[in-house]
Amino acid sequence: MDGAPVDPIEPAIARDDPRGNEAAVKRVCELIDRPASTSLTPPPELVAEGAWRLGWLGLLYAGGVLCSYFARRALLTWNGTFEPGWHESDVIAMLAILMGLAVYCLSRWGGLPPARMVDLGMVFQVAGAFGIAAGEYWGGAPPQLTTSLTMVPSESVWIIVYPLAVPNAPMKILVSSLLAATMRPAAIVISAAAAGSEIVTPVTVASYLLSDYWSALAAYAVARVLHGFNVRLKHAREIGSYELIERIGEGGMGEVWYARHRLLARPAALKLIRKDVLGSSQRARDAITFRFEREARDTARLGSTHTIDIYDFGVTEAGDFYYVMELLDGISFERYVQLFGPMEPARAVHLISQVCHSLGEAHALGLVHRDIKPGNIFMCRLGPDYDFVKVLDFGLVKHLDTRAGQMLTVEGTTAGTPAYMAPEVALGRTDADGRADLYSLGCVAYFLLTGQPVFSGDSAVATALAHVNEQPVPPSARSEFQIPLELDAVIIECLAKNPAARPASAADLACRLAATVPPDAWTSDAARAWWELHKLSLPRIGDAPLATAPSSARHACWPRLDQRPLPEQLA
Prior knowledge:
- The protein has 571 residues and is of the alpha+beta class.
- The protein has 19 helices and 13 strands.
């Protein structure tokens, strides 16, 4: 179509020309390998911060002109050294105040993109310098040349401070600073022409250029330093093909970041597992890293729609392990209970059954999650579906190698959360299987229905021992809802101390749960209505301020998802 933008890659591929295909591949590789440091603009989040600070700078400018000009004039009038009345410089001062207030209102209005607002700020820098100079020199230039050389002019301070508050490309700062440096001589010339007076000598006007142009060069140097810092910050917030945007969670093993793919612009959640939790020695870190890699590979192979999708994983140059997951729009079971209290039985059955779908596939492949808890299960909106469940954090999964009888996990640790830990896991038994997850899932269902854990001790050890020794109180005795007796019995069966007394599989548990409530007890319309009602109270990514990058050094990394199988001798 005429006038449509032409993709330089597509025509070559469409012609099926080998040379064109080679050029297209080369072009794609250039896009991928292009270093981020070639960008002349600050990162988008810093541009947004600069646009916001521009508003504060406009407000401070207006307040500064009001205090410095009118307060000084009032003091001089009171001393009798300044003739009272209306002067032309008053108009300039008032226009300068209005300009500062207008910049503040524009920055808070939000109608202009941050990049456009920052570029508009350069006009404010130049006009602001003229306003300062005109208010100071409208009555004429100081008669003595030494006057300008022994003081730091106000506009020189303004020129240097501006790039500190509102970062921009160094060349743009240089151009705007040079123009701002010219405003003082321009104000003197215009003032002299308006008053019909003459400037003593051209050297007097040229003298005012010295300090201001030095300030312009200093502002350029400041912009260069800030640009280098911003580039390093941008690199520090890049891991593999993903750029870290905002920290959305933190736990004992690491951090979870809201990230964005640099080429696809796809949002994702990136989990960083710190090097210090991987072991004290290099040998231990290598062994545990291999276990995480194998578990991430197994999780990536899971096809259940109720298991979190893993896009990529690898190791950063600093030795931190990371993996990239799909970004969910929803809340965890734990957060739900914190915000809204216990859940009605029909909805709890609907959600827990979806967890069974995820665990059923994992158990069939020999994977045991071992950390099923409310914080690792999300209820979310996924496309047109509401109350869609995703099971997270298979990073602590135990891999059961049925051929060799081996089990892979983190050596020297008891994985899991005490409040949701099966007795055999708490005792450190090595034969724990998928029924340990069903025990934890029973604890999760108990928590949803009652708003309380099954057991809560004074310490993690006391809580774990309670799971080993004490019998649970039925959830119906602790819930504000009328829980069906059949559902009560299924949950108590999940909490049996002996794994053999629990449901045989996740699929069996799902069938038994479905039989405890009427089929239409919780519908998709009810779920949609709940989400529409409570959407304003749900936490959303972006409400919190931007987090600081975890390190000032670039996270060079080695993605592992598409590598060849790891050597089996490391197992």
